[in-house]
Design a protein that fits this description.
381 residues; globular; eight-stranded parallel β-barrel; alpha/beta; 13% strand; 42% helix
């Protein structure tokens, strides 16, 4: 029985081969940040007022020129074709049906043109800046032509994290160990749903730029690792701002100083993130920086947040502390892996229901009524 997002995780663990599950589920090194991202929500407890009429509730939020029906976006995630054939399309369709945002990754399995052809709207593009600037410029051009309304530039993965749990499944880079291959054989449903329709999935957005030797499967990963821009700096942001005329957000911010610098560089907003615990192990949860960064930027700035969100109560706590909306990543990957598009629909409905119920119990009719007055930081007491 699926009653919450963690139930989808349990289902995904049953249906995915271990190497694929741990790719999604794991974090960097000792996974301190991965655990911290979940534990941090217990720092705050609700202080609910009573006798507030919240019989009619509106969960919608305005982000720039776009009105979403709930304060949620599907986070950018890469190589989802390893979980299920057409997983990216399923996520995008679920977002459109729920009228929330879908942020497509540079390293998604589907090309941005495939997402656009399947249906326009609610489509943002996340960019990893590559060394070859002509490729980066072409990605921006294609994103505009595909109808992507907003560019989200990730700046916290310039140097890849040491994802030890993931590495244990390989005898050498990109080559599964014998034990991992044997475990794949115990997941015939995954083989049927994932590999039979397409073979080894590739990287749709990068396909036009791949040399012949990198065209299939893991070759795209090798190309991407070689091409990641390791000299990313604020001048790069200035250059991107000149190349992209639409809304631009910078993802991976964790300090008030960087948040202010981002806005001064012409960004239209930021995403607070520690990359879901997949980069620097021991880094702070964005939740612990949210209130300070909101104060630094003022009430009108767009501040999105991700990393560790699993419950509607988590989302409401972030909104009360100053987030404009929340990005959801892993839980929806568990859902698409185990349940396909219907699984994502159900996961989003569960999360939306939890947000709605929490707001009702706090006496709030809309997101604007949420605020820090509804919380107490019990750790600092």
């Amino acid at each position: 029985m699926i009653l919450n997002l963690d139930d989808w995780r349990a289902q995904a663990k049953k249906t995915l081969p271990a190497f694929a599950f741990n790719y999604v589920d794991g974090g960097a090194e000792d996974e301190l940040t991965l655990r911290h991202n979940r534990e941090v929500f217990s720092h705050w407890q609700f202080v609910p007022p009573v006798l507030q009429d919240a019989s009619q509730r509106d969960l919608s939020v305005q982000l720039g020129d776009e009105l979403f029906s709930a304060p949620l976006l599907i986070a950018p995630t890469g190589y989802n074709g390893m979980l299920r054939y057409q997983a990216d399309l399923m996520l995008a369709r679920a977002a459109r049906k729920a009228n929330i945002g879908f942020i497509q990754s540079t390293v998604s399995t589907a090309a941005m043109e495939e997402i656009a052809a399947d249906g326009r709207g609610n489509h943002w593009f996340q960019l990893y800046v590559l060394k070859d600037r002509s490729v980066t410029i072409d990605l921006l051009k294609r994103a505009r032509q595909a109808g992507c309304s907003t560019l989200v530039v990730s700046v916290d993965a310039v140097h890849f994290g040491n994802r030890a749990r993931d590495k244990r499944h390989y005898r050498r880079p990109m080559k599964l160990s014998a034990a991992s291959l044997l475990h794949v054989a115990t997941r015939p449903g995954w083989l049927w749903r994932t590999l039979k329709p397409q073979g080894m999935p590739g990287f749709g957005n990068l396909r036009p730029y791949l040399p012949p030797q990198y065209q299939r499967g893991v070759g795209g990963a090798a190309y991407f690792a070689e091409q990641m821009e390791t000299q990313l700096d604020w001048q790069t942001i200035d250059w991107l701002r000149s190349e992209w005329q639409g809304p631009l957000l910078i993802k991976g911010i964790l300090t008030p100083q960087d948040a202010q610098r981002a806005m001064a560089s012409g960004a239209d907003g930021i995403v607070l993130s520690n990359h879901g615990g997949r980069q620097l192990d021991g880094s702070i949860s964005p939740m612990l920086m949210l209130a300070e960064i909101r104060q630094a930027l003022g009430s009108q700035a767009t501040i999105l947040i991700d990393s560790g969100f699993r419950r509607g109560t988590d989302v409401v706590k972030a909104l009360a502390l100053g987030a404009s909306a929340v990005l959801i990543g892993r839980p929806l990957l568990y859902a698409v892996a185990a349940g396909g598009e219907a699984g994502v629909d159900q996961a989003l409905a569960l999360l939306r229901g939890e947000i709605d119920r929490t707001m009702a119990q706090l006496g709030c009719c809309n997101v604007a009524q949420l605020g820090p007055h509804l919380l107490r930081n019990v750790v600092s007491l």
